[in-house]
Design a protein that fits this description.
With about 60 residues, the chain is an all-alpha fold. It has one domain. The chain is about 90% helix and about 0% strand. It has two helices and no strands. The longest helix has about 40 residues.
Length: about 60
């Protein structure tokens, strides 16, 4: 099945466009993972703020 997909990609896009598409796909994956990492860090910071506020309110 993978071979069929590869052959179709070469036929549709041409042999010279495949490396560019792969590079763009890799860049998109990297940016997506970077965004996820930033979102997790932001969530952790917000959770920390909530915990601090809760402990201050209990005093």
């Amino acid at each position: 099945m993978l071979i069929v997909v590869i052959v179709l990609a070469v036929v549709i896009f041409g042999g010279s466009a495949i490396p560019k598409l792969a590079r763009n796909l890799g860049s998109a994956k990297t940016e997506f993972e970077k965004g996820l990492k930033e979102a997790k860090a932001s969530d952790a910071a917000k959770a920390s703020e909530v915990t601090e506020s809760k402990s201050e309110a209990e005093k």
